[in-house]
């Protein structure tokens, strides 16, 4: 077996989504754009049918399937960030034209859900102080974009 590749169903904007994502993530590139050799249910001969792209060494495929299916939060991509600056950068870039949610979740302008999470969060939740972990978890539940300093302050039981 070669690999398992997530295939993302877009409403006629798979190429634009792939261009956007590959511009944001390291080692991002568009590997192939396939055009339809004949008319298909959601397009015409010559339209972009699929786009194969790579983000951070992982393959993805976008398909221009039309408006029949939409993304839901049941599938999301977690972006683990090294620090607050990286959280802020990915949050702002992916949020552009999209919608904030809660607990570090957002939907981008294509409707795809992302979790922008500092790696420090898991360290705090797995920390040696169960009460501190609980406070960090409760703080996270009240956030929209995650704030590393506030999570650390909650864990330590001090004001941020």
% residues in beta strands: 25-35%
* DSSP summary, beta strand count: 8
Using the alpha-carbon principal axes, give the shape.
elongated
Average per-residue pLDDT, rounded, comes to: 96
Count of DSSP-assigned helices: 5
Low-confidence sequence ranges: none
Rounded to the nearest angstrom, the distance between the terminal CA atoms is 49 Å
The CATH topology of the largest domain corresponds to: 2,3-Dihydroxybiphenyl 1,2-Dioxygenase, domain 1
Structure class: alpha/beta
Rounded to the nearest angstrom, the radius of gyration is 19 Å
Order of helices and strands: EHEEEEHEEEHHH
In CATH, the architecture of the largest domain is Roll
In total, how many domains does the architecture comprise? Answer: 2
Identify the CATH homologous superfamily of the largest domain.
2,3-Dihydroxybiphenyl 1,2-Dioxygenase, domain 1
Indicate the percent of residues in helices.
Answer: 25-40%
Please outline the major beta sheet: 4 strands, mixed
Task: List the strand order in the largest sheet.
Answer: 1-4-3-2
* Highest-level CATH class of the largest domain: Alpha Beta
List strands and helices in order, with pairings.
Layout: E1 7-10, H1 14-24, E2 29-35, E3 48-55, E4 58-64, E5 76-81, H2 84-95, E6 99-100, E7 105-107, E8 113-118, H3 119-125, H4 130-141, H5 148-156
Parallel strand pairs: 1-4, 5-8
Antiparallel strand pairs: 2-3, 3-4, 6-7, 7-8
